[in-house]
């Protein structure tokens, strides 16, 4: 996907040639905690029963949006936020799309077509689908066609795709990567679908901080342009 998921972000950082020497990065728990979501703002605008149903289905903790971000989302149709510290960074973007939930989920579930929909993804190939539904896929990204090997874990019920590095493949540019796509009815109504793309990445020492800045500032926006 144009990033798929970290689309360019991750892709630009990913190379596969030799095993990476891992250093402490953001764990799955730390990523979840950093994206702790407060439902209070949404409760004022949504039917309580729908909110409870959405909470039961969620497999991820969504970022909390401030009142200012909620207003900006209503005006511009998207909001994004980035954070970087040294060689680690995380970012998210949320879009209120005019596309239906079915259209969006169909696109996210069709990994082999990501390269034709998402900017920055030059090719997308499914290598294996495991018994538990995990998808091992290889992407080439950016104009340099850098290889990126990811494991995707889609859940049609939760309308969520979790993703991370494929530990069975070598990645010398990134120590750790995890993130998710998630879609649900927009609390702003209007038959819109709210789509979240979030990612956290820890780069190897050889990767310049400018690369992390690119991941945080541009990749997610490029990956979600098809939603607008």
Record the SSE blueprint:
Blueprint: H1 7-13, H2 28-34, H3 40-43, H4 48-57, H5 67-76, E1 78-85, E2 88-97, H6 101-109, E3 121-129, E4 135-141, E5 146-155, E6 160-165, E7 174-185, E8 193-203, H7 209-223
Antiparallel strand pairs: 1-2, 2-8, 3-4, 4-5, 5-6, 6-7, 7-8
Polypeptide structure, described:
The protein has 228 residues and is of the alpha+beta class. The protein has 7 helices and 8 strands; from the N terminus they run H-H-H-H-H-E-E-H-E-E-E-E-E-E-H. The protein has an 8-stranded antiparallel beta sheet with strand order 1-2-8-7-6-5-4-3. Strand 1 and strand 2 (88-97) form a beta hairpin. Helix 1 packs antiparallel against helix 7 (209-223). It is globular and about 45 Å long.
Largest sheet report: 8 strands, antiparallel
Outline: globular
The helix content, as a percent range, equals 25-40%
Total strand count, please? 8
The portion of residues forming beta strands comes to 25-35%
Distance between the termini: 15 Å
Oligomer: single chain
Mean pLDDT: 75
Alpha-beta classification: alpha+beta
Output the number of helix runs.
7
Q: Residue ranges: pLDDT <50 for 5 or more in a row?
A: 1-53
Describe the structure using short key phrases.
globular; 8 strands; alpha+beta; disordered N terminus; 228 residues
């Amino acid at each position: 996907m144009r990033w798929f998921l970290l689309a360019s972000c991750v892709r630009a950082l990913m190379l596969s040639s030799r095993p990476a020497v891992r250093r402490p990065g953001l764990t799955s728990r730390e990523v979840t905690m950093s994206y702790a979501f407060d439902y209070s703002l949404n409760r004022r605008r949504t039917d309580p029963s729908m909110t409870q149903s959405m909470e039961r289905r969620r497999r991820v903790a969504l970022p909390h949006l401030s009142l200012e971000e909620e207003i900006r989302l209503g005006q511009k149709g998207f909001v994004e936020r980035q954070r970087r510290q040294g060689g680690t960074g995380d970012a998210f973007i949320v879009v209120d799309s005019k596309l239906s939930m079915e259209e969006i989920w169909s696109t996210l579930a069709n990994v082999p077509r990501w390269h034709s929909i998402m900017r920055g993804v030059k090719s997308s190939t499914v290598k294996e689908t495991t018994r538990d539904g995990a998808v091992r896929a290889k992407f080439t990204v950016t104009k340099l066609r850098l290889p990126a090997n990811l494991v995707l874990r889609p859940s049609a019920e939760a309308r969520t795709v979790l993703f991370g590095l494929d530990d069975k493949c070598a990645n010398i540019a990134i120590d750790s990567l995890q993130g998710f796509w998630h879609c649900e009815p927009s609390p702003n109504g209007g038959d819109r679908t709210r789509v979240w793309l979030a990612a956290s990445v820890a780069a190897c020492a050889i990767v310049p901080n400018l690369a992390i800045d690119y991941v945080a500032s541009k990749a997610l926006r490029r990956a979600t342009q098809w939603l607008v």
